[in-house]
Amino acid sequence: MKRILLLCLIATFFNVQDSFAQRKELRKRKSKNKKEQVATPKKADKDAIKSYTDVITKEAVTDSGLFQVHKIKNNFYYEIPFTALEKDMLWVTRIAQIPNGLGGGYMNAGSKTNEQVVHWQRFQDKVLLKIKSYTNIADSSKAISNSVRVNNYEPTLYAFDVETFNQDSTAVVIDVTKLFSTDVKAISPLSGRLRKEYKVKKLDGSRSFINSVKSFPENIEVKQDFTYDASEPPTERSAESISLQVNQSMILLPEVAMQPRLYDPRVGFFTVNQFDYGSDALKADEKTYIRRWRLEPSDPEAYKRGELVDPVKPIVYYLDPGTPESLKEYIKQGIEDWQKPFETAGFKNAIIAKDAPTPEEDPDFSPEDIRYSVVRYVASTTRNAVGPSVSDPRSGEIIESDIIWYHNHLRSYRNRYLLETGAANPSARTLDTPEEEIGEMMRMVIAHEVGHALGFPHNMAASYAYDVESYRDGAFTQENGIAASLMDYARYNYIAQPGDTNIRFVRQMGPYDHYATNWGYRWLPDASSPLMEKATLNKWIQEKAGDPRFKFGRQSSSFDPQSQTESIGNDPVKASTYGIKNLRYVAQNLPSWTSDKTNDYGDLEELYGELVGVYSRFVGHVVTNIGGVFEDIKMPSQSGVVYTHLDKAAQKESMSWLQNNLFETPTWLVDPAIMQNIDHAGYAEKVRRTQSRYLNRILSFDRIGRLIDAETTQTDYYSALDMLSDLRNGIWSETSRGTSVDLYRRNLQRSYLDRMEFLMTDQGPKARSGRSGFEGTLYYDVSVSDVRPLVRGELGKLRSKLRSARNSNVNTVTKYHYEDAIARIEQLLDPK
Q1: Contact 216/371 with Cβ under 8 angstroms?
Q2: Contacts of 555 (CB under 8 A, 6+ apart)
Q3: What phi, psi does 265 have (nearest 5°)?
Q4: Structure pTM?
């Protein structure tokens, strides 16, 4: 009797789902043959839909949660409530265990390989797993929403046969075994690039299996052990296999999405974008929301009175169970350093650090579980740390994040601490940096990465907020650190000089961090929509306008001297002068601080290589001044313009500095006491590579184009001709002095000719780059610009100089060098 009742219910359900065309066809068939009318549902369908007890047998091990998950032998079944169909769920694919070297060092246990919104959909005798996008939207009450729907058809990730329905017909049961045991690209840990690199052939089913499926109230976690056949795996080549463990997280997104907050480019936040076709604007209205955690006051009335209030749900980070005991204190401090900025936003205890629970305390705890945000400690030689997160695309709400700390990253900080502060900081002059100082560095790196996970991108203008001379003032640095934000790449105070006292050398939280946290996270109870918040948010920005401590500078602004990575101070020329002065001191003492202590040249070689890199960065900061354009993002209601060219005097000063500190051979970089103990050859090439790198940056189409452009907006400007003339006179100064040219300068001069040839023959950039309205690379038609005539003219002047100089009292090598240069110029100017 029960079976008959169940079959009747099933038939009724299928009839509701039938299309209009099917019903019409049945009416036709009824008129022809009454016997055919009783054949719905078909016998095959009846046979396909088994009874619940035939599918979910007594052998089933059931785990209840978002869906009931049944395990029967090696098969897994999802029992999906009808109420969960069409619900938005976030699906995140992560690597749980990884072979050494996969992905080149920046993939690890905890790496996210995909993030997508899905929903489960009933279609006839199937259940479809569909991928859903919120890029294009429209209010469902508007007619255009139908056009949005049909022009953004959702891909089907997987289709399942209906196995049965539960006992009271409120849920559908499907077999998900194949989804999780086969190679489904949309949830695969291996991208197409990795498959090509390692020559992956296929997933080996005999060595792949579902490890576990666990259901929790709002999420389901699946672990897979996969082995791929691969001709060129990253490790254990003879096995011709790649084995890894993958975690699939699926979490139910909030029924009511968090109220979004509209993005303003004057305050730095990561974002989500939507195109609203239901807008009253005469186009698809692009709406950009900031990414942030949902923080709501547990006591709204106290919050309104200005009291500090606990959030309903604080942000909790767990420490990876594999974290070394000696480092836990510093990691926790770095996480909870953000409590102070959150207090500025009205919340106390908003962010908390905890040790991961032991298996006895919580046997279900897993760092890959999407319910938990974890600081992952990765046993890897990679020197880096990152702070990714996953978010709800409907609102920008951050759901979870994993901070990744790579083990060897501390060595990077040890090395740069020695190189950048060693001249003024005696405690940095060692390979054994004091534990407290290393801990403080780690604390600030963790805090920086947590900042990313809270929604904050790099703010490269924060280090331009302070005057260069302030970095030599102990009281100032102790109070203000070395940048107005922890989110800048300002790691160390490389300006302070020997003899300066009470100096803070390591970065710390700054005023911008408090300001941005308040702007993004303060609860506005009287604003029931993003638009209603806009006036208040704009007011807060206007109150800080003009104060460099609260300026946001984009990392991609490669043309802006204010927004440079790894720089500090508001004058790159002065800051780099102090920096190189310190670096020369360090170079002189590097052997005594390293190889003399260890009786080994390994550390000396490593640190020397990084010292050249530090010098290179100091040079690069000054190069940005040439053709530099300040970007001050503002709204039309604010006075002044967004883009302003750096003044002529500052650019000429920068060119003079580069001639003295880059193009005049930095012989201190090739100290025999270092070079002859770490390499047998290539000394001149090390200098040439550095000089050529920045020569090419100066002689770039992009930079020359900005210098040409200055003529359109300024009366007194540093022109492209000024720059090219100053550069030629400096690099080829021997032609005026009548002196011989040494090896280093000959290399540099030939590099100059190489680059001038490039400017004469290359077609230039093919397109602009960056977000619309804030592009970095300048695109223009080089063939009709001033570039070719300017280069031709400079080469002609140089040829005349060389013809005279080759007859002066110079050595034979210089004569040959000049004759070669003349021949190259003539070939370039007249290829026939």
Answers
A1: yes
A2: 457, 458, 460, 563, 565
A3: -65, -10
A4: 0.89
Residues 410 and 527 in one domain: yes
Per residue in 808-822, pLDDT tens?
999 999 999 999 999
- 80 near 252, Cβ under 8 Å? no
The C-alpha atoms of residue 670 and residue 242 are separated, in whole angstroms, by 45
Cβ(713)–Cβ(641) under 8 Å?
no
Q: How many CA atoms lie within 13 A of 256 on its CB side?
A: 1
Paired tokens of 27 = 């009416």
Domain C-terminal end among 252, 273, 305 = 252
Tell whether 270 and 210 lie within a shared domain.
no
What residues make up the domain containing 362? 263-555
Residues in the chain: 832
Cβ proximity of 63 and 75 under 8 Å: no
Residue 340's contacts (CB-CB under 8 Å, 6 or more residues apart) are: 509, 514
pLDDT attached to residue 48 = 65
Task: Mark whether 44 and 68 lie in a shared domain.
Answer: no
> Does 335 share its domain with 247?
no
Q: 407 or 26, which is more confident?
A: 407
- Residue 522: which CATH number? 3.40.390
Number of structural domains found in the chain = 3
**In degrees rounded to 5, what are phi and psi of residue 768?**
-80, 155
Domain assignment present for residue 672? The answer is: no
Q: What is the pLDDT of residues 733-746, one digit of tens each?
A: 999 999 999 999 99
Instruction: Supply the pLDDT for residue 31.
Output: 43
Of 555, 578, 598, the one marking the end of a domain is: 555
User: Which amino acid, residue 225?
Assistant: D
Is the CB of residue 336 less than 8 Å from the CB of residue 352? yes
Interior angle at CA 235, CA 233 and CA 241, nearest 5: 45
Task: Please indicate, yes or no, if residue 100 is contained in any of the structural domains.
Answer: yes
Q: What is the pLDDT of residue 439?
A: 94
